[in-house]
C-alpha cells in the first residue's frame, strides 16, 4: 500500500517536472516569436518609411534582447544577438534621436 502510494507520488512529480520543462521551453520560444514579430513590423515600417514605427520597433527589440539574451541565445544560437542588439541601438540613436531634435 505505501509502496503504491510512493509510486504514485513519484509519477505525479515526474509529470509536474515535465510540465514545468515544457512551459519553460515554451516561454523561451515566446521570446523568439516576439522577436520575429518585431522584426516583421520593423521591415514593414521600413518599406513604408514610417520613422516613428521604426523607432518604436527598434526600441522594443533592444528591450526584448536585453531582457532575454540568455534564452534567445539558447533558442537560436546561430544568431549574433549582441550585434543585432547593437544594430537596433544604432538605428535608435541615428534615426530616432534625429527625429526628436526636429
Account of the 3D structure:
The protein has one domain (30-101). Helix content is 90%, strand content 0%. The chain has three helices and no strands. The model has no long low-confidence stretch (mean pLDDT 79).
Bin the strand percentage.
Answer: under 5%
Question: For the report, how would you describe the main beta sheet?
Answer: none
Please indicate the count of domains.
1
Helix content range: over 70%
How far apart lie the N and C ends?
78 Å
State the shape: elongated
Give the SSE order as H and E letters: HHH
Task: Output the number of helix runs.
Answer: 3
How confident overall, as mean pLDDT? Answer: 79
Structural class: mainly alpha
Radius of gyration using CA atoms only: 21 Å
- Count of distinct strands: 0
* Contiguous uncertain segments of 5+ residues: none
Descriptive key words:
102 residues, single chain, mainly alpha, elongated
Short note summarizing the structure:
This protein is mainly α and 102 residues long.
Amino acid at each position: 500500500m505505501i509502496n503504491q502510494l510512493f509510486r504514485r507520488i513519484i509519477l505525479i512529480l515526474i509529470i509536474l517536472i515535465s510540465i514545468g520543462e515544457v512551459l519553460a521551453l515554451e516561454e523561451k520560444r515566446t521570446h523568439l516569436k516576439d522577436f520575429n514579430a518585431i522584426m516583421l513590423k520593423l521591415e514593414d515600417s521600413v518599406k513604408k518609411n514610417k520613422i516613428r514605427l521604426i523607432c518604436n520597433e527598434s526600441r522594443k527589440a533592444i528591450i526584448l534582447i536585453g531582457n532575454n539574451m540568455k534564452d534567445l541565445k539558447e533558442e537560436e544560437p546561430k544568431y549574433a544577438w549582441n550585434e543585432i542588439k547593437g544594430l537596433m541601438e544604432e538605428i535608435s540613436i541615428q534615426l530616432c534621436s534625429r527625429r526628436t531634435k526636429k
